[in-house]
Specification:
It is a single chain. The protein has 329 residues and is of the alpha+beta class. Helix content is 52%, strand content 15%.
């Protein structure tokens, strides 16, 4: 439901940039720094542990704590291993979602009901923007959980399955609560979009190189209040796009083309109370064009500080307005 979607978007977005930075700092970066040929490692007098953390070449472990950490990582982790790796994160997200949904039920609740919300039709409450918000929320939660899992057991299929299942399950429980709202109902459209968001995250991590090339982002266009927290005016501010980063392609990442992105997205107009009062028609807007890779511009190809990693991580999910040239169709 659209009210639930507007409440969920804030917490995961706040966490995403910080989580990406922590993963880069303690996961991928550390694995890269450990990866040494056997001859170099032997020369340094280090102890070798082959095939740890999915690294093909031997790696040199510099401390007993690191050796113990790597020894505890299974070569082929199970879904159970992945779920155990994010048990506290799952509990935290579950508590947050339980809090906001319990508040809704206390205020307005009735018998369980189903509701068809109309997908992207012009008669739908937000002309489909709430559906894209559902997909984005589930996508973002899946991304956060996958980053946490990768830090602990590596990038493995079981981790991707577990992250998608947890994110989809949490959103399903939230939708159950919508079924008891007097003004709402359980929406199968929301469930489909939730599954789509989780599935896209899993696909993005499964196909080699796709994560560096393709993002799903939310854009917030300021209004007279700068930002509206709820209601139709909130959804009127939102636009969603897929972004292809030229910096993710090997032939372009060392050239000025790394500052260029290709965008295709969707938003809607004419569905707020003010627009209806003016007689503005309801319009579904698709757009495509060229954008500026602000992350590359501000933080470069390999950000080193925690602040720059957080900033670049957040920009993988939040699309800044006014940094692109688009055509509507």
């Amino acid at each position: 439901m659209w009210k639930e979607a507007e409440l969920l978007v804030s917490l995961p977005l706040c966490l995403a940039g910080a989580e990406i930075a922590r993963f880069d700092a303690t996961g991928e970066a550390s694995a890269a720094s450990y990866s040494l040929p056997a001859s170099e490692a032997a020369a340094d007098g280090g102890e070798l542990e082959p095939q740890a953390m999915g690294v093909d070449r031997p790696i040199m472990l510099t401390s007993a704590a690191e050796r113990q950490s790597h020894e505890q990582v299974p070569d082929r982790a199970s879904v159970g291993d992945a779920l155990k790796a994010v048990k506290w994160e799952t509990l935290g997200l579950g508590a947050y979602m339980a809090t906001i949904n319990t508040a809704k039920l206390v205020n307005k609740s009735g018998s369980f009901s189903f509701k068809s919300e109309g997908w992207f039709s012009k008669s739908a409450n937000t002309v489909g923007i709430d559906k894209l918000t559902h997909a984005f929320n589930t996508y973002l939660i899946t991304e956060i959980l996958q980053d946490r899992i990768e830090r602990k057991i590596g990038n493995q299929p079981a981790g991707r399955i577990a992250a998608g299942a947890v994110a989809g399950g949490l959103m399903f429980l939230a939708e159950i609560s919508d079924g008891f709202e007097e003004t709402g109902g359980f929406s199968s459209e929301d469930i489909v979009m939730n599954l789509g968001g989780a599935g896209f995250s899993v696909l993005r991590r499964s196909v080699p190189g796709l994560r560096d090339k393709l993002d799903y982002r939310m854009m917030i266009v300021p209004n007279s209040d700068v930002y509206t927290f709820k209601g139709r005016r909130h959804f009127r501010q939102l636009r969603y796009n897929f972004s292809v980063q030229l910096a993710g392609f090997d032939r372009l990442k060392e050239t000025p083309w790394r500052f260029v992105e290709l965008h295709v997205g969707y938003y809607a107009t004419g569905f707020t109370a003010a627009e209806e009062a003016r007689g503005d028609p309801v319009r579904r807007r698709f757009y495509a064009g060229v954008g500026l890779n602000v992350g590359q511009l501000l933080f470069g190809r390999a950000p080193k500080s925690s602040a720059s990693k957080i900033g670049q991580g957040a920009l993988r999910y939040l699309q800044l307005p006014y940094v692109g040239a688009y055509g509507r169709f």
